[in-house]
Design brief:
The chain has 308 residues and is of the alpha/beta class. It has 2 domains: 5-223, P-loop containing nucleotide triphosphate hydrolases (Rossmann fold); 227-294, Alpha-L RNA-binding motif (Alpha-Beta Plaits), CATH 3.30.70.1560. Helices cover 33% and strands 27% of the residues. The protein has helices spanning 44-51, 73-78, 95-105, 112-121, 137-149, 167-182, 194-200, 218-225, 272-282, 296-307; strands spanning 5-13, 19-28, 33-37, 59-64, 67-68, 80-83, 155-159, 186-190, 203-208, 211-217, 228-234, 250-253, 258-263, 286-293. It has a 6-stranded mixed sheet with strand order 6-7-8-3-9-10, with helices on both faces. The protein has a 4-stranded antiparallel sheet with strand order 2-1-4-5. Helix 3 (95-105) packs parallel to helix 5 (137-149). The longest helix has 16 residues, at 167-182. The protein is elongated and about 80 Å long.
Length: 308
């Protein structure tokens, strides 16, 4: 089955000389959840805006569900749903009026049963006759998702979908995203919440300075770039690391009371047994130890720092 989205050599240059996107290549498979991570100004929103037709590209090609975005805009755009960062609805319209109007904009025949189920899935059915202005911020965010899904798109873009919402609503939205994926909708999300990508995404892309630094399966990425940490709670605090431990990547934390060793868990020789042996030879005693794996946030920060 062909990909739902193919982006080739996509660029966006402004008259000021700024390169918002610089030769981005990206392929999105059907039915996956793809998380696009990057700092502010990295190019995430620009990329989404170009694919959704609200910003003009400088170069490159985009194919959505087999339709070239440059020559078959109507068909390509019909396959896409967009939930932008900002609340963009008529605040005096009702919830029901908003979703029915949006569905009609894309040329879809009326389908009250579909829209009713959509609003029920989003816990909006009881609010269907309420005006947008009367809703809470979280409910308005749900209306934005309902509006984006009203015309039954195959590809849904979520641009910072949980920015400014509370933790409970964020988790409700995570559950909704999984349910949409189970129904066959492909989802691309941008987020500042690394745990959001770690929780939901099948694949992760990291963008910075308009360039796509890396795209990989989330689990494979964490295996390849994730490190483990060995933390030793020392019996006696250390003022500085002795030269005799220079062969290991060590750091002192918590006022010298914790010794931290970072290592590659996939390496043939992690260095951990030899470190513990050396500590014994030096008479450096510890009262507890703990190991942990790097998070996706650690990996993301490291990639961006290396690219800077």
């Amino acid at each position: 089955m062909p990909p739902i989205l193919t982006i080739s050599a996509l660029s966006k240059h402004y008259k000021s000389g700024q390169k918002a996107l610089d030769g981005v290549d990206l392929t999105i498979e059907r039915g996956e959840i793809f998380a696009l991570l990057g700092p502010n100004g990295a190019g995430k929103t620009t990329l989404i805006s170009i694919v959704c037709g609200t910003v003009t590209k400088s170069g490159g090609t985009i194919t959505v569900d087999g339709h070239d975005l440059a020559t078959d805009v109507r068909s390509a755009r019909r396959a896409i749903g967009l939930v932008p960062q900002e609340i963009a609805v008529d605040i005096f319209a009702t919830v029901w009026g908003t979703v029915t109007f949006s569905r009609g904009l894309f040329g879809r025949a009326p389908d009250p049963a579909y829209l009713e189920q959509l609003l029920r899935d989003l816990s909006l059915w009881e609010k269907r006759d309420s005006r947008i202005i009367e809703l809470s911020g979280g409910m308005k965010r749900r209306v934005m998702i309902a509006k984006a899904l009203s015309h039954e798109p195959d590809l849904l873009f979520l641009d910072e979908p949980t920015a400014g919402v509370d933790v409970n609503l964020r988790r409700d939205m995570w559950a909704l995203v999984r349910k949409l994926r189970d129904k066959g909708v492909t989802i691309i999300l941008t987020t500042h919440y690394i745990e959001e990508a770690e929780e939901m995404a099948d694949r992760v892309g990291v963008i910075d300075g308009g360039k796509l630094l890396l795209v990989d399966d989330k689990a494979a990425l964490m295996r390849k770039l994730g490190k483990r940490r060995l933390t030793l709670a020392l019996q006696q605090p250390m003022a500085a690391l002795p030269n005799a431990l220079a062969d290991w990547s060590l750091a002192l934390e918590d006022g010298g009371s914790r010794l931290v060793y970072s290592f590659d868990a996939e390496a043939d020789d992690t260095g951990m047994p030899s470190l513990l042996h050396r500590l014994g030879e030096l008479g450096i005693a510890f009262k507890d130890l703990d190991t942990s794996r790097s998070s996706l946030e650690d990996i993301f920060v490291g990639l961006v720092e290396r690219a800077a």
